[in-house]
Amino acid sequence: MKNPLQRWWPKTLYAKTSATLAATTLLFLLLTLITIGYLIVVPVAKRSADDLAALMMVSAQTWAELPPQTRPDFELELKLNHGLTLAKASSPLTHEVTRLLPYTRFLQDSLIQRSNQKITIHSTISADGTRWFWTDIPVNKRVVRFGFTLARLGPQPPLAALIVFALGAALVLLTALLLVRRLTRPLARFAKAADEIGRGVTPKPLPETGPVELLQLSRTFNHMALQVQELLADRTTMLSGIAHDLRTPLARLGLTLEMLRPQADTQLIAETTQDIQEMEHLISQYLQLGQELTGDRPETIDIRDIIDRCVIDARRMGTDIDWIPDEPCLFTLQPLVLTRILANLLQNAVRYSDGTGVAVEVRRTPESCVIKVLDRGPGIPEAERESVFRPFYRMEPSRNSCTGGSGLGLAIARQLAQFHGWRLSLIARPGGGTEAHIEIPSCTSLD
């Protein structure tokens, strides 16, 4: 079972690099804020709270000792110059004890320490939405009540830290995303171009711009792509030469055998003729592997029609093939290419299942069209399901044509599929046998 963390962990280079930079940046900002808060903000807040507590204690003592007629002037001066509201407490505070901010907690602790009495800070919300803090301070057998607003606290370090953290994180993350995108976009182009080369398609030249390293890499890749295309062209030319050079002497050998037929051993002549025919068949299949990649021109066609023709041809060999057309499946593709792939797959299915249990299915999805060729043969071990796509690979190593083909049918089918961006795979069929899947993406369909 997969770790749940692996399911959510980014998989692309862009996402992984961005996530790493984001996590590192956020951790750095968090540690920075903790350090600044512990070494600077908290000491400054404690000192400011202690100063306000001292002012409140002195003001309470002074107010209690002043004559009643001078107290209003003192209260007005305290309110204008220090933002404190002072009055005699006529009744106990009934408001809820506030969930103290760090500053008000420091203030409460300082008041308790200076007065040696239990003092609590309460809060209320006025009619205009202003938040007030209230506390009663006992002095000279009187209780003096102080009130101040949140604005009296002046600077708000927690809010400032939060804003700095948010802005810093957004700026750094945006820069990281742009930087990573700038680095990964050329890599994505390289990957796409390499995939096209793997399918035998000549990619468009990569732009030779950017940093020196990417510039050099683009030039090298473009040169390599050109060399690969030249090699493919040379291969086709070489195979054409092989066909010309081998088929001519084979034709002369066939003619010689016909001339010797009345005089030579009939059995020997028949065996030699069969060998020549097998050689010509091998040459034809090998040429298909190198020359049938371009195929015919794309056409808009119902895939069911192609399957119909292939199934009819296979049934002529006396094989019962289960095939029931489903809903229309219009795609723009090269009919001869799909016909060649289906013919090879049907030929294998008939050969290895003794002509029983062979079926063809087609299913259209929003993303693709999936064609299945199913048989009830002995099946293919999982370890060899990719090996059978290699040219001339055979699970039966005797190379006897009676026990298998030449080993080129699946290789031709896979290369044709890859060249056109299709996917060909083999899986085990439930109940025994093999399922061959051809998946044609909808990007080639007529929608």
From TrEMBL:
<protein>
    <recommendedName>
        <fullName>histidine kinase</fullName>
        <ecNumber>2.7.13.3</ecNumber>
    </recommendedName>
</protein>
<keyword id="KW-0902">Two-component regulatory system</keyword>
<feature type="transmembrane region" description="Helical">
    <location>
        <begin position="21"/>
        <end position="41"/>
    </location>
</feature>
<dbReference type="InterPro" id="IPR036097">
    <property type="entry name" value="HisK_dim/P_sf"/>
</dbReference>
<keyword id="KW-0597">Phosphoprotein</keyword>
<dbReference type="InterPro" id="IPR003594">
    <property type="entry name" value="HATPase_dom"/>
</dbReference>
<dbReference type="InterPro" id="IPR003661">
    <property type="entry name" value="HisK_dim/P_dom"/>
</dbReference>
<feature type="domain" description="HAMP">
    <location>
        <begin position="181"/>
        <end position="233"/>
    </location>
</feature>
<dbReference type="InterPro" id="IPR003660">
    <property type="entry name" value="HAMP_dom"/>
</dbReference>
<dbReference type="InterPro" id="IPR050980">
    <property type="entry name" value="2C_sensor_his_kinase"/>
</dbReference>
<feature type="transmembrane region" description="Helical">
    <location>
        <begin position="159"/>
        <end position="180"/>
    </location>
</feature>
<dbReference type="InterPro" id="IPR004358">
    <property type="entry name" value="Sig_transdc_His_kin-like_C"/>
</dbReference>
<dbReference type="Pfam" id="PF00512">
    <property type="entry name" value="HisKA"/>
</dbReference>
<dbReference type="GO" id="GO:0000155">
    <property type="term" value="F:phosphorelay sensor kinase activity"/>
</dbReference>
<keyword id="KW-1133">Transmembrane helix</keyword>
<keyword id="KW-0418">Kinase</keyword>
<keyword id="KW-0472">Membrane</keyword>
<keyword id="KW-0812">Transmembrane</keyword>
<keyword id="KW-0547">Nucleotide-binding</keyword>
<dbReference type="GO" id="GO:0005886">
    <property type="term" value="C:plasma membrane"/>
</dbReference>
<dbReference type="InterPro" id="IPR036890">
    <property type="entry name" value="HATPase_C_sf"/>
</dbReference>
<dbReference type="GO" id="GO:0005524">
    <property type="term" value="F:ATP binding"/>
</dbReference>
<keyword id="KW-1003">Cell membrane</keyword>
<dbReference type="InterPro" id="IPR005467">
    <property type="entry name" value="His_kinase_dom"/>
</dbReference>
<keyword id="KW-0997">Cell inner membrane</keyword>
<keyword id="KW-0808">Transferase</keyword>
<dbReference type="Pfam" id="PF02518">
    <property type="entry name" value="HATPase_c"/>
</dbReference>
<keyword id="KW-0067">ATP-binding</keyword>
<feature type="domain" description="Histidine kinase">
    <location>
        <begin position="241"/>
        <end position="444"/>
    </location>
</feature>
<dbReference type="Pfam" id="PF00672">
    <property type="entry name" value="HAMP"/>
</dbReference>
